[in-house]
Design a protein that fits this description.
CATH superfamily of the largest domain: G protein-activated inward rectifier potassium channel 1
Number of strands: 16
Radius of gyration: 41 Å
GO cellular component, one term: monoatomic ion channel complex
Strand content: 15-25%
Low-confidence stretches: 1-15, 22-28, 415-421
InterPro entries: Ig_E-set, IRK_C, K_chnl_inward-rec_Kir, K_chnl_inward-rec_Kir6.1, K_chnl_inward-rec_Kir_cyto, Kir_TM
CATH class of the largest domain: Mainly Beta
Number of helices: 12
Organism: Balaeniceps rex (Shoebill)
Distance between the termini: 80 Å
GO molecular function, one term: ATP-activated inward rectifier potassium channel activity
Largest sheet: 5 strands, mixed
Mean pLDDT: 78
Pfam family, one: IRK
Length: 421
């Protein structure tokens, strides 16, 4: 360290470090805005300070369905255990009040002078086993009820009714959690990125949607909403302002026939919130486009909904999705490995408003792309021609047998002429 300090002065080192730091560009990333809808369709929303918690108990069935699986299974197990323990205590009290727990009654029972309410119930354990047998209708045959106690018959009827109610509620809750509609939405996929390109002379916002299952979604419809923070002329700030935007469809309806992956198109016109946004302004916009796909599951008849969203960073300007549906041996095949692949295409960088005011921008853009395409084709053809010529020359140099010998022809006058073929 001493030798280095003696060779390089400290003032020079500090000055060089400062100069390097000044030359480096300081780029500060823009704080990333929280998404309203995640890519998997989950709502990024937290409910806080809810004072009326009792409203959830008024709709107990929906509350049980919305709970997590571990909580549902704990409630399912505890409901049966508590009912068995409750009626076991009731059976034990009935037997205790009738005197079935007295040891002296056992000899009387064997001599057929004493009839208990429930045979073989002489402890709380046997009462608990009898409660399980009654509610689950197992019936091992050792413990059974007699006609001695009307109260025992009433407890039997009550336990059967309560057991049926618990079975209906809990089994229905388990079934609804297993067959929830959002499980079907797991096989409905959206492209990770959306694109903006020219289609039919108009700027269009496009994305791709597909269904991985063979069972179709009946009456499928697509809705698009733009969510952004806006301020009214009165100064009111709306943090989540939702605006519906139309979907391009020849039959003027949002319904689609989702038999194969489709490209959903939104024409950016005067009704669109994207009408004044150009390619340069897109990255500065604080907006989120939410896509909602709804339909009826063909196999279960339950309505399902799949959601996703696209922010400004996930929208590619001047791109188009590659085709993935081909016909192979009379069958249409879908290659899902190219589901989200895009290619660059010619598209004006201006907004849709400027494109409507100056249609010549689109013509100039298409002409430039056509010229660049022709130039690239010429360069490619010339490179192929040069490569083929070089390859043939190299083959002639390496193989002397390919060189054509000179042939001499004798004319009638006797002169000789040499020609090379």
């Amino acid at each position: 360290m001493l030798a280095r300090k003696s060779i390089i002065p400290e003032e020079y080192v500090l000055a060089r470090i400062a100069a390097e730091n000044l030359r480096k560009p300081r780029i500060r990333d823009r704080p990333r805005k929280a998404r309203f809808i995640a890519k998997n369709g989950a709502c990024n929303l937290a409910h806080k300070n809810i004072r009326e918690q009792g409203r959830f108990l008024q709709d107990i069935f929906t509350t049980l369905v919305d709970l997590k699986w571990r909580h549902t299974l704990v409630i399912f197990t505890m409901s049966f255990l508590c009912s068995w323990l409750l009626f076991a205590m009731m059976w034990w009290l009935v037997a205790f009040a009738h005197g079935d727990m007295d040891p002296s009654t056992e000899s009387a029972t064997n001599s057929t002078k004493w009839t208990p309410c429930v045979t073989c119930v002489r402890s709380f354990t046997s009462a608990f086993l009898f409660s399980i047998e009654v509610q689950v209708t197992i019936g091992f045959g050792g413990r059974m009820m007699t006609e001695e106690c009307p109260l025992a018959i009433t407890v039997l009827i009550l336990q059967n009714i309560v057991g049926l109610i618990i079975n209906a509620v809990m089994l229905g809750c388990i079934f609804m959690k297993t067959a929830q509609a959002h499980r079907r939405a797991e096989t409905l996929i959206f492209s990770r990125q959306a694109v903006i390109a020219v289609r039919n002379g108009k700027l269009c916002f496009m994305f791709r949607v597909g269904d991985l299952r063979k069972s179709m979604i009946i009456s499928a419809s697509v809705r698009i909403q733009v969510v952004r923070k806006t301020t009214t002329p009165e100064g009111e700030v709306i943090p989540i302002h939702q605006v519906d935007i139309p979907v391009d469809n020849p039959i003027e309806s949002n319904n689609i026939f989702l038999v194969a992956p489709l490209i959903i198109c939104h024409v950016i016109d005067k009704r669109s919130p994207l009408y004044d946004i150009s390619a340069a302004d897109l990255m500065l916009q604080d907006l989120e486009l939410i896509v909602i796909l709804e339909g009826v599951v063909e196999t279960t008849g339950i309505t399902t909904q799949a959601r996703t969203s696209y922010i400004a960073e996930e929208i590619l300007w001047g791109h188009r999705f590659v085709p993935i549906v081909t016909e192979e041996e009379g069958v249409y095949a879908v290659d899902y490995s190219k589901f989200g692949n895009t290619v660059k295409v010619a598209a004006p960088r201006c907004s849709a408003r400027e494109l409507d005011e100056k249609p010549s921008i689109l013509i100039q853009t298409l002409q430039k792309s056509e010229l660049s395409h022709q130039n690239s084709l010429r360069k490619r053809n010339s490179m192929r021609r040069n490569n083929s010529i070089r390859r043939s020359n190299s083959m002639r140099r390496t193989n002397p047998s390919l060189i054509v010998p000179k042939v001499q022809f004798i004319t009638p006058e006797g002169s000789q002429s040499a020609s090379e073929t």
